Amino acid sequence: MAAGKTEGRHDQASGLDERQPVDVLKVLADGQKAAAAVVDGALGDIAAAARLAADALLSGDRLVYVGAGSSGLMAMADALELPGTYGISRDRIVILLAGGAASLEDLAGGYEDDRDLAVSDASQAGIGPGDCVIAVSASGSTPYALAIAAYAKEKGAQVVSFANNPGARLFDGADVAILLQTPPEVISGSTRMGAGTAQKIAFNMFSTLVGIHLGHVHDGHMVNLKADNIKLKGRACRIVSDISGVGLDEAERLLARSEGSVKAAVLLAAGAEDAGAAQAALDRSGQSLRRALKALG
C-alpha cells in the first residue's frame, strides 16, 4: 500500500526521544507553525467552499460534515459551533463521524474502513440535491469519507473535500478541493498534530466566511449568536451597545423587546418601530444587519 506524504518522516525525528524536553517541544512547536503556514495556499479554495456552503443554507438546504478519526473530530468541532456562534438552525447541520457516538469514547480505527457503514449513515441522513457535503481526511483515502462523498455526488449534492495529500482520492469529483499540504509529522503518521492543526484553521476560516456570507457578522461581531447562557447574554448586550452606542442597561432592555435577537435589538436602537418591524427589515435585507441599518436611514 503506497504511503502519502502524511506518512513521511520528519527531518528532525531522528533521535527525538533522546533530546531534552524543551528541545523536543521546540521541534513540535516548529512543526505546528509549519502546518499552519500551508493554509495560506488554500485561501481561494476555502473561499469557494464557503460560498457553496452559504448558498446551500440560504436555499434551505444543509451542511453535512463527514470524517473519521481525528480529522472527523476537527469537522465535528466546527459543525457543533455553528448554531451557537451564528444562530444557524441545528437541523441545517448534519455530522457524520465514523462510528458515531461510540467514537467519542473510543476513537477506534476500524470504523473508518467500513464503507457499508458510510453508505448506511449517508442514507439515514437523507443526503440529496441542494445539500453541501464537507468531507475531510488527512490522507485523502479514508474509505468512510470516500464512500459518503461518492454517495453524495450520486444523489446530486455538492461536495467539498479537505485533505493533506496532493492528488488525494477524496478530491476526485469534488466541487471544491482544499489541499492543506502539511509537511511530514514529527511523530510520523500522527495526523492529529500538523495535519489536524491545518484542518482546524481551515475549518475556522471556512465557517467564519460562511457566517459573513449569511449576514451574521457585523464589524467583527457575531450578531446572530444564540445567547443561551450568562456569558453569551452579557456578550449580546455588549454587541448591541457597541454597534448602536446605547448603554448596557438599554441594550439589555432592547434585547428583551427583541426576544434576544441582537440584530433586531440594534435596529430598535436605530429607530425601528417594534420587533416586528425590525424583523421585517432584516427579511428584506437578506438578514444583513448592515443593509437593514442603511435602509432605516
Outline:
The chain has 297 residues and is of the alpha/beta class.
How far apart, in Å, are the first and last alpha carbons?
64 Å
Could you give the order of strands across the largest sheet?
A: 2-1-3-4-5
Number of helices: 11
Number of strands: 7
Element order, helices and strands?
A: HHEHEHEHEEHEEHHHHH
Tell me roughly what share of residues is in helical segments: 40-55%
Q: What portion of the residues fall into strands of 2 or more residues?
A: 5-15%
Poorly predicted regions are none
Please, what is the average pLDDT?
93
- Structural class, from helix and strand content? alpha/beta
Main sheet makeup: 5 strands, parallel
Q: Specify Rg, calculated over alpha carbons.
A: 22 Å
Shape: globular
Map the helices and strands.
Blueprint: H1 21-37, H2 43-58, E1 63-67, H3 69-86, E2 93-97, H4 115-125, E3 132-137, H5 143-154, E4 158-163, E5 176-179, H6 194-213, E6 217-218, E7 221-222, H7 230-244, H8 248-257, H9 262-269, H10 275-284, H11 289-296
Structure characterization notes:
The protein has about 300 residues and is an alpha/beta fold. Helix content is about 50%, strand content about 10%. It has eleven helices and seven strands. The protein has helices at about 20-35, 45-60, 70-85, 115-125, 145-155, 195-215, 230-245, 250-255, 260-270, 275-285, 290-295; strands at about 65, 95, 130-135, 160-165, 175-180, 215-220, 220. The strands form two sheets. The chain has a five-stranded parallel beta sheet, with helices on both faces. A two-stranded antiparallel sheet has the order 6-7. It starts with 20 loop residues before the first helix and ends with a helix.
